[in-house]
Inverse folding.
């Protein structure tokens, strides 16, 4: 009965076996192994395979499993696979798919294929799909499912129980039933646990939780995730502007959003997209990353241009050229720490107008303190190494100035970017290092010119 | 009935009002506002306040709410608050707390206070606490709650229903009841939805899902989170080595772990700790960040030492000093992109021995392609700017070499670190930039020495 500690390792091992079979061309064995693998493991195998292997694996998988596996895949990988499927196979795979996944798959298709797939679907699926497609993909409407179980307020618990037993099965992750009036407007909800613990003679209207917030269909998915986290929901109803019940959102979809949101900052800070596929083809990856390198080349050239202002002193003292990178580098590190904390704080909603001044003061104080520590240390190191206490004093001053600038920029840059509605995680790092590079070089070479030139 | 789109903004606005009242010294008004604020909003207010305001707010909060608010706080902020509470107040606050939160609070206390709090607790809470404390805090045992509802296999659904109605209420997020044998060993589970849809004359043993994996109490919480994500669980039973049911883990605690895990890489890459508090006191923050600056100073000095090997050529041509930062900077950026993708891939379990060679090949190809593009471009820029096609050729060669090194190091550094069980997110960036700095400087100044010296 006890879960093997190695549930995950076991999966990895089995995936490895499939891989080995594929490499040695034992397709029959690989097909058999794939049939025995649960959908989530096949998805993991596809995610961790280069493009060519993905195509081979997909052809070996049982078509009945296609839908379930597609649901488990990340958006980027899913898209690359559905682009290669025949419309009628795709239509078959989408049968019984959750509404949100169905809509996502359809959105990724070129228009003629899309029309063809829609035509091959059965009537009910087509209606579901068209409804979901009428909402933006990152709104509550785009991520909801339509598998709600609804009750009328004027029946007894006993009647509800008989109705449910007749139904025989409830959709996955059903923890609540929704109460609607004659116009299909959402008026309250009844938890399954409540249904099981109250007197069966009572009316639904009497035991339901009224005044529950329905999630508006056009609410952004990030806000949906925040609502789930604040209220510890397992599922929640989605309503339109007039309060009609449209569907429900379940925690498993919200967990995906939370993970994506949390990873977004890290990926953006390296100039990568959220759905970046580690195993994408070389050309595609190169194209995406080139833009980021272009932006950074401009900032590197800017720093070089600043250095070139001090060509005179640089040509007089090679030691300055050697030490010129230390102060900008330390400023970049200190600034990135502040920036990372502020970006996280913004994502968590901790940073408000009322505490931002305190925060700037705090980061300046840290900059001053760290500046003092590292100024003394670097002065000593440089004075001993280069046998010049004057250069030591110059680098100490520059270090102090740059760590202060780093603290200030680390807080203000993301705040300003947010004001102008630019993603701080994407643009913050580049702007910050530009500031610390320029300030660092100016402070070091400028002071050197004044004192030694 | 419709959720206000502004649920979050509304909270922020109310928090702002409390803040304004505190700033203007209207403590009576602030206290009244705080009493009307739900626990999650008070927690948000505390998280986004400087240390001094936190103490004031905490004193204005209704002590009956203390427990619930403590549960909502992040670990770092929670710790700072409980350290200032009197033992008997703390004992009162912990009454009715979830077992995992209770254990966490107790773990954060100095030993004498801990003993005192334990003494002031009622018998049942003390037992729960001692049980939870016997497990490591990041294991399944440390995050579980003991509020399970158990059934015997040999009773009918009808009997279960009567038992539940007698009980009158189920613990929050209960979606399943657990079936245990006479020895309290976990033998299966019954979903509430199943209970509601089957014939009431059937036996529990007949309708339960047998062969369910119980989570071993000593399983690491990261693995627990992965199990929840793989299986889309809302709750899951925890068992000891003999299969005895100990408690259960619910999705709301797992969501916190998933968020922390996802943020871990971003924070580590900036040398920050997972529970870093944006509003921690200056001295504490300075101390933590100093270590990271120290590590980076060593790498900056190393780069300077490499440059100093080429002092001759630097003193002959100041232009080399000016351009010396461009190649290392581009290498650092390109390498960080690869590193970030590999770290994310490792966290998601996508990177295995069987695909790592393919990945190295891919990143080398991207490095070569990007190297070619930026080598040509930088050669043209530098040749025009500095009126020297020779310097252009030199920097082009160095760029090419360094972008290849960046691609190679971006994949191999995190893999090697993982092999030696060092966190790639923490140490990867420093090692990577050391590689790209050293290779960049060597390639640029070394080639310059050969061709121009």
């Amino acid at each position: 009965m006890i879960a093997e500690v190695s549930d995950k390792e076991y999966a990895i091992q089995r995936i490895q076996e499939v891989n080995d079979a594929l490499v040695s061309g034992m397709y029959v064995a690989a097909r058999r192994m794939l049939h025995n693998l649960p959908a989530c493991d096949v998805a993991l195998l596809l995610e961790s395979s280069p493009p060519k292997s993905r195509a081979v694996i997909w052809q070996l998988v049982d078509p009945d499993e296609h839908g379930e596996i597609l649901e488990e895949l990340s958006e980027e990988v899913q898209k690359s696979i559905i682009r290669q499927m025949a419309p009628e196979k795709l239509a078959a795979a989408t049968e019984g798919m959750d509404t949100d996944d169905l809509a996502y798959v359809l959105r990724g298709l070129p228009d003629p294929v899309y029309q063809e797939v829609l035509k091959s679907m059965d009537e009910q699926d087509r209606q579901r799909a068209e409804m979901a497609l009428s909402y933006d993909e990152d709104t509550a409407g785009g991520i909801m499912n339509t598998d709600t179980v609804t009750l009328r307020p004027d029946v007894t618990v006993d009647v509800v129980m008989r109705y449910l037993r007749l139904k025989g099965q409830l959709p996955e992750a059903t923890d609540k039933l929704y109460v609607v009036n004659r116009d299909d407007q959402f008026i309250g909800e009844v938890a399954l646990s409540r249904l099981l613990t109250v007197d069966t003679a009572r009316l639904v209207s009497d035991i339901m939780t009224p005044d529950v917030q329905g999630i508006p269909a056009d609410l952004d998915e990030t806000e949906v995730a925040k609502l789930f986290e604040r209220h510890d929901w397992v599922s929640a109803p989605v309503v339109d502007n007039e309060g009609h019940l449209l569907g429900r959102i379940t925690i498993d979809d919200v967990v995906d959003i939370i993970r994506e949101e949390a990873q977004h900052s890290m990926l953006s800070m390296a100039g990568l997209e959220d759905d970046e596929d580690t195993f994408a083809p070389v050309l595609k990856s190169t194209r995406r990353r080139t833009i980021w390198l272009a932006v950074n080349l401009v900032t590197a050239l800017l720093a070089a241009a600043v250095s070139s202002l001090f060509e005179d002193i640089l040509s007089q003292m090679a030691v300055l050229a050697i030490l010129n990178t230390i102060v900008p580098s330390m400023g970049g590190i200190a600034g990135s720490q502040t920036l990372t904390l502020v970006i996280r704080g913004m994502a968590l909603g901790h940073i408000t107008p009322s505490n931002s001044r305190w925060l700037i003061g705090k980061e300046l104080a840290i900059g001053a303190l760290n500046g003092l520590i590292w100024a003394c240390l670097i002065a000593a190191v440089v004075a001993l190494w280069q046998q010049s206490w004057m250069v030591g004093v110059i680098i100490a001053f520059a270090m102090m100035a740059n760590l202060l600038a780093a603290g200030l920029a680390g807080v203000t840059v993301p705040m300003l970017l947010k004001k102008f509605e630019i993603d701080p995680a994407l643009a913050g790092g580049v702007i910050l290092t530009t500031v610390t590079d320029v300030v660092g070089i100016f402070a070091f070479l400028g002071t050197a010119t004044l004192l030694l030139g």
